Amino acid sequence: MVAGVTNLDGFRSFWFLWPMFRFKNTRELTCLFVAACVLMSQSAADEQEFIGDFLKREYSLMKPYRGLGFSTSSQWHLMGTAMITPDHVRLTPDLQSRQGAVWSRMPLLVRDWELQVHFKIHGVGKKNLNGDGMAFWLTKDRMQNGPVFGNMNQFTGLGIFVDTYPNSEHSLDTKSGTQRIFPYVSVMLGNGSLSYDQDYDGRHTDLGGCTAAIRNSIYDTFLLLRYSKNRLTLRLDVDGSQEWKDCADITGLRLPSGFFFGASSATGDLSDNHDLISMKLYQLTVERTPEEEEEDKEEITIPRVDNMEQFQVEIQEEGMSGVQLFITVLFSAVGLGVLAVVALAVYGRWKGNRRKRFY
Predict the structure, then answer these.
(1) Beta strands 89-92 and 231-237, pairing class
(2) Rounded distance, CA 51 to CA 46, Å?
(3) How far apart are CA 11 and CA 183, in angstroms?
(4) Is the Cβ–Cβ distance between 267 and 92 less than 8 Å?
(5) CA distances from 312 to 203, 217, 250, 305, 308 (A)
(6) 73-116: per-residue pLDDT in tens?
(7) Cα radius of gyration (the chain)
(8) Domains of the chain with CATH codes
(9) What are the tens digits of pLDDT across the range 64-85?
């Protein structure tokens, strides 16, 4: 009986909360509860029914960078100007005309995976006076020099490009009608014949991307790439929020197994420091339906995307602004005037010489 009274007194201690549970507030609390459930269900759907993950060290690159070097026994190989420091692997220094890369020696044989990359791009150049950027790869060929951020063009596999310099400043995307803002992170899938068009920053062949304030950031910059059930998602964390933000989501993307991870960078007339701090590869445990298991039995030899037409973009040159048009007309008029004066002077001298011959 004493216990019963004690419990009743404990219940009475919460009596002041009773006004919260009148009908009106109950209805509001119910709405909040339903909204929370919807958000939680969306978050769960985004996780694609992942059961778990674990780090695959043989495909990862982390401090203190053991297993990285030039020897044949190394798990990761250095290339070009890449050099190891205690805090990072510097792919290219802030100097002109440099290329550097690191490549995994082991082919990837994991079906569902997540790659988390920690990197930093910084330099003394002002905005749009820096370049060129860096890239992360999963490709058939490795250790190849070339014009695409330090790797070969017409590659076979996946390329994630962190482009810091706009080669085409006045090109418009006809789908969105907007001009691309740099730095820009984009995805490209190469089949061995597609070319990355550097003059247009690869806009004809990218599958998706986003603008990201990566260069000279005061925060750590991270990139997450997840591949599962023929779906590739790209997310970034570059503002210190410690939350992944969506950048690209591509379904129907099919990758062969046995390709190699890598990271590369390049500088040209403009430059930056391109530092790779870590690449961590996680194997994902994913539930599949019998239909999905049957679909995954298809042997993929060349990377491809279902409905590639939906990603094709037409690029048109942006017309000149009113100020640009006025300046162009003004200089053209001045140039024509100078030519006219020179022509009259030459003609006058020629006419004078002609008269002298008759006297």
Answers:
(1) unpaired
(2) 13
(3) 59
(4) yes
(5) 9, 32, 13, 12, 7
(6) 889 999 999 999 999 999 999 999 999 999 999 999 999 999 99
(7) 30
(8) 2-46 (no CATH), 50-317 (2.60.120.200)
(9) 998 898 887 889 999 999 999 9
